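To whoever is on call:

I kicked off a structure prediction for a single chain this morning and the downstream step that reads the tokens threw a length-mismatch warning. I double-checked the sequence; it's 426 residues and nothing unusual in it as far as I can see. Pasting both halves so you can look.
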Amino acid sequence: MEKYPDTYLLYEYMKKLPYTVRIKIELTEPVDEMLLKQASAESSGRFPYFAVRVELSSGGYVLKHNETPIPVLPEEDRRLMLGSDEVSGHLFAITWRENTVWFNFSHSVCGAFGAMTWIKTTLYRYLTGKHGQIDPPRDLRKIGEADEAELVYPDAGKLPADEPLSRYNGGNNNVGLTDFLKYILNPFARNNYYYEIEIENFMEVAKPLDASPNSLLAAVMLKAVAELYASQKEKYRKKGEHLSARIAADYRDDIGCPKSYRDFVRFIHVGYDWDMGSDPIEKLNMRARGALISQNQPELSYECFRKASQAHEGIDAQPDLKSKKKYASKHSTFRTDVRDTYTISYVGYQDWGGLAKYIRSVYTLTDGNLMLEVNALPDRFCITFQKLNKDRTAVDLFCKAMEETGLKYSISERKTRYLPEIKLPE
């Protein structure tokens, strides 16, 4: 039976948890719609694994090539419906308004790590069409056939089965889980929100601390959440629960597919004691650095991929769509992973080449609460602080912690995420 690795997350789709992504790029000048459509048509042929539609076959989802280019549509204040006639059945779509472009897609196919080459290639075609020759990013994909290395999907059974030297043993914690459940279970809660935060002196602060973007943000965020939940700490202490961060880690290199477009991501977990909120930022950063180093083991990546592969095989074994969805919900690698208080997701260093001259900001929007999505341009960091409700107490506490750390920032008003929904065959 032919397998469709890019469909498995579709079985977990929920209207309130759609597993979709938006990457918002603000340019320095107004968008030319016709040039953007031309650029999308050109790059669609280069990324055939993104130009797909979903069909139902033998009780399961399959992906078929979509002959039409990835669509370009005006941005509206609503949730786009991927998979619908409006987008010609595509799971990827581009929207625009004034000087801003949104790249919208299903997380089932890829995440921000894998989408960046498509985004850069599309922007390169667009901006060179408008301005002529521009120095290309190093990972630019030339128009032509996809590289076989991009399509590699490892065999979990052939990966080493060695035990890791150590594991995170902090266990689950439910601090902050109430906000998530209130959102999921409340039929009147339809929207979720975010704030755009721009920091220009991030690396100036990070370097003397020997901090990475992930470790510094985990430390700053810890100060915020420790104060946010200070009044509840004794209740959680009695339950044996603590504060913890989860940091997204791309493990494509570990499993032998460094050029894959797929979303091979696991989480590094950082445990903090309740009273650490008053500790110096240096100490909090070193704790995060220690976790990043100790959990940076390929054996943990092999283990993560084997677990995901077992879940996928279980989905494939189910006889019909209803059974596949039920199995996916109970064996989801997203839902069965260790729960933490907050999340840091940094897409990593990106070479924008000459495109950077024309880009004002880059922000990633995903599902998540108390979650920082992080992008970097050559001279500034762009962070989305994601919240499921309108209460901005946590945001204000994070701003306070940034000020205490010496980070110079600007912050937007509250914005609505408008994460796309997906129309799936039944």
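Update from on-call: the warning came from a stale cache, not from the record. Cleared it. Sanity check on the structure: DSSP finds eleven helices and 17 strands in the chain.
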